[in-house]
Amino acid sequence: MKPFTISLFAVLLLGVCHVSRATLASSKEKKTTYIVHMSKSEMPASFEHHTHWYDTSLKSVSDSAQMLYTYENAIHGFSTRLTLAEAKLLESQPGILSVLPELRYKLHTTRTPEFLGLDKSADSLPQSDSGGAMLPGNLLPLVYAGNASNATNGNLCMMGTLIPEQVAGKIVVCDRGVNPRVQKGAVVKAAGGFGMVLSNTNANGEELVADAHLLPATAVGQKSGDEIKDYLFSDPKPTVTILFEGTKVGIQPSPVVAAFSSRGPNSITPDILKPDLIAPGVNILAGWAGSVGPTGLATDGRRVEFNIISGTSMSCPHVSGLAALLKAAHPDWSPAAIRSALMTTAYVAYKNGKKLQDVATGKYSTPFDHGAGHVDPVAALNPGLVYDLTANDYLNFLCALNYSATEISSLARRDFTCDASKKYSVTDLNYPSFAVNFGSGGADGVIKHSRTLTNVGAPGTYKVLISLQSPGVKVAVEPETLSFSQANEKKSYTVTFTGSSMPANTNSFGRIEWSNGIQTVGSSIAVSWT
């Protein structure tokens, strides 16, 4: 029995050694960086500060792990290095929303940094290596959709309106309007057409928007579209080909206000000028989920990770990214201060001095089109002065709009009652722009706006400059000079708008600028007689 006992002991000893080695291997398991998203509102009352809670949560799964960064703005949480097992264990802890491995994204855009002035070296940016290529290397017959349809609206290339025998193998000219642009191409393709020329009408002017068409296609402005139609009607056998000439940069004028851009005046609160500002939003290379094809049509079976998209949904992430850059440079700035910096440093004219153009009309844009102007992130990093706001300022604004206590409390998520003894005014909201509305029928009147500027730059003296050419209103600023001796110092001023009788629906535009000789803090003005 003794040999058996020794053998069993040896087996047990080997087992202990195996467990020890497994434990050692586990402790040396490769660690990677994780982003831990915490629910700050679920922090137990026993913790005085959320970072103490974060550290305790982390130590519950690893004695050696350390927090690399803590996050307090876009999300609440921290980053750390963990093993896969530790990450899974941490994810099961109370108050943990997610534990995600760090993922480094590469910049895919090729133009935005240069366009916004974030990259001053144009030579470092890749140029298109796509040479000219014809689709196909020969000419094809050209036909106008309106002449190849039995429908009165056949020119719009709507579903079921084209005659296949008259468009098969041809390039079809379709007019823009009513149905989606990409759907027009699908209609042409279904009827046997080889390609499409999409022509703008009066409603779209010269605005060109890129689309992921289902067939070879090109978009042209109204002027070119009219010339093409003249050619179609004058030549008994019109022909055409589509030529891809590569990416072109430096097209002027640029930027222009897109026809689809959000426009003022503010129909809900006319005393607040909208839009705030404009940013790149036309023909933007953007991520695409892939749940549908790049055209969004049910018949589009293609799946891609990127797409060319246009819309205010594209300008919004540009501004959001710039806001994040400003927050990184100035962690103590409030959201209102960041918005102010972007607005007061935006530009309203090109380098040649001409005003920004509205592509919808071909004329100069106004503050009802561009708001404060086009974003200039480099200037926004050092705006000099900002118009700041607190949560109570917004609540006072709701009081001025006669919101009920219940409505305000539901928005504030706390009890708040307007002070009955206090006089609230929408013109007191510390906004970086001015919207002035005189009475119905163009009656005379005096409207005052009060503003407060906060110094976020060096000490200095700012002088005001008013530019507004209108016989119907006079503008006075008091005081005309603001002197700041230290950072975060606040100074207030009042703007008085005195209006005379003008026809209803008249609008006038201008600017108020504060300058210390280096920085210019600009505010757009929109005056309306409603």
TrEMBL record:
GO cellular component assignments: apoplast
Protein name, per record: PROPROTEIN CONVERTASE SUBTILISIN/KEXIN
An example Gene Ontology biological process: response to symbiotic fungus
Listed Gene3D superfamilies: 2.60.40.2310, 3.50.30.30, Peptidase S8 propeptide/proteinase inhibitor I9, Peptidase S8/S53 domain
Key words, A-Z: Apoplast, Glycoprotein, Hydrolase, Protease, Serine protease, Signal
InterPro entries hit by this protein: PA_dom_sf, Peptidase_S8/S53_dom, Peptidase_S8/S53_dom_sf, Peptidase_S8_Ser-AS, S8pro/Inhibitor_I9, S8pro/Inhibitor_I9_sf, SBT, Subtilisin-like_FN3
Domain Inhibitor I9: 33-108
CDD domains with a match to the protein in the record: PA_subtilisin_like
Keyword Lipid biosynthesis appears in the UniProt entry: no
Statement: the UniProt record of this protein carries the keyword Signal: yes
Domain Subtilisin-like protease fibronectin type-III stretches: 428-527
GO molecular function, a single term: serine-type endopeptidase activity
Protein species of origin: Salix purpurea (Purple osier willow)
Function: Required for arbuscular mycorrhiza (AM) development during AM symbiosis with AM fungi (e.g. Glomeromycota intraradices).
Lineage: Eukaryota, Viridiplantae, Streptophyta, Embryophyta, Tracheophyta
Record's subcellular location: Secreted, Extracellular space, Apoplast
Signal peptide start and end residues: 1-22
Family: Belongs to the peptidase S8 family.
Domain Peptidase S8/S53, first and last residues per copy: 191-354
Pfam assignment, any one: Peptidase_S8
